[in-house]
């Protein structure tokens, strides 16, 4: 039973209190009978009746209460063990989460279980873990905001040496906090070094002429096994980079991005740069190609 203030009274604890009271009563009765016997203030017949009542209390009440307390104690222990096993199953599931925004997923699980778990160590554990998860989310958000500025600046080769060092340091910290997990949609690590590649490449251009010019590049990627959707003209939707860029989102995609950049360079886009971006919820193996206004 749980009261409004969150104080939980286990039936086992109630029985232990009753059991302790009965023990004290029995002990007091024994002392009382011993005193009577020593002083001989009542006759033997009445004394026998008192002793009989004392035996009844010990056998009928004392032993029965003790047996009930032990039985309930085992039942509650079994129930708590089942609760631990139940939550342990979800703990393993949370630990094995993969993909971007794993901390947000963990926050949802831990917030739910910190609300529905029984009072005690299990609930407190989930509350503490939820706070740990929230702290990681806040730290990742802080790093991501700084990286976003530096990575956008890096697209146009506008970073100073000091800024590049800061970006590299933040990138390492971001990957460490985010456990460097990728989505399980596509696995490209082993295939990136083969002639036929697996991956998804989006191409953004600025103008109809660029779209016609880049068709040969798109077909060459398709011939190597890459999926290349229709080329998107973003002339009125986005700001073009100063130089063409090949953008990837996970460490595991660096080889794939390099292969795409090599293909782009072979088609005449000599100044194309490779850029890592973070914090976007995309599948592993996703690459974006952006042409500059002058290409």
Which labels suit this protein?
alpha/beta, Alpha-Beta Plaits, 3 domains, five-stranded mixed β-sheet, 5 strands, 60% helix, transmembrane, SPOR domain-containing protein, membrane
What is the 3D form? rod-shaped
The figure for the number of domains is 3
State the end-to-end CA separation: 72 Å
In spatial order, strands of the major sheet run 2-1-5-3-4
What level of helicity do the residues show? 55-70%
Assembly state of the chains shown: single chain
Rg is: 36 Å
How many beta strands in the DSSP annotation?
5
Main beta sheet strand tally, sense and closure:
5 strands, mixed
> How much of the polypeptide forms β-strand, as a percent range?
5-15%
The computed structural class is alpha/beta
The average pLDDT is: 76
Q: Low-confidence spans: pLDDT under 50, at least 5 residues?
A: 1-9, 181-196
H-E order: HHHHHEHHEEHEE
How many helices?
Answer: 8
Explain what you see:
By secondary structure, the protein is an alpha/beta fold. The protein has 3 domains: about 1-95; about 100-180; about 200-290, Alpha-Beta Plaits. The chain contains 8 helices and 5 strands, in the order H-H-H-H-H-E-H-H-E-E-H-E-E. Strands 2-1-5-3-4 form a 5-stranded mixed β-sheet, sandwiched between helices. Strand 3, helix 8 and strand 4 form a beta-alpha-beta unit. About 20% of the residues are buried. Keywords: Membrane, Transmembrane, Transmembrane helix. This is SPOR domain-containing protein. It comes from Citrobacter enshiensis.
């Amino acid at each position: 039973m749980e009261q409004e203030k969150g104080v939980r009274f286990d039936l086992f604890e109630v029985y232990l209190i009753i059991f302790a009271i009965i023990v004290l009563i029995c002990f007091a009765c024994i002392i009382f009978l011993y005193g009577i016997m020593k002083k001989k203030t009542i006759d033997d017949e009445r004394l026998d009746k008192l002793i009989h009542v004392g035996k009844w209390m010990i056998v009928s009440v004392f032993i029965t209460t003790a047996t009930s307390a032990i039985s309930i104690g085992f039942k509650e222990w079994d129930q708590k063990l089942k609760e631990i096993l139940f939550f342990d199953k979800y703990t393993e599931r949370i630990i094995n989460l993969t993909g971007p925004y794993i901390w947000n997923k963990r926050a949802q699980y831990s917030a739910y279980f910190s609300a529905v778990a029984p009072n005690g160590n299990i609930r407190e554990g989930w509350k503490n873990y939820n706070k740990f998860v929230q702290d990681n989310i806040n730290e990742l958000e802080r790093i991501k905001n700084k990286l976003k500025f530096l990575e956008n600046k890096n697209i146009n080769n506008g970073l100073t040496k000091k800024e590049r060092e800061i970006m590299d340091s933040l990138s390492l910290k971001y990957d460490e906090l985010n456990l460097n997990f990728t989505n399980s949609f596509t696995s490209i690590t082993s295939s990136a070094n083969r002639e036929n590649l697996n991956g998804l490449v989006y191409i953004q251009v600025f103008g109809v002429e660029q779209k016609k010019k880049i068709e040969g590049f798109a077909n060459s990627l398709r011939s190597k096994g890459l999926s290349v959707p229709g080329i998107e003209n973003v002339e009125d939707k986005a700001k073009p980079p100063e130089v063409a860029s090949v953008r990837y989102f996970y460490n595991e995609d660096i080889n794939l991005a390099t292969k795409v950049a090599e293909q782009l360079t072979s088609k005449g886009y000599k100044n194309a740069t490779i850029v890592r971006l973070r914090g976007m919820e995309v599948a592993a193996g996703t690459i974006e190609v952006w042409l500059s206004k002058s290409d």
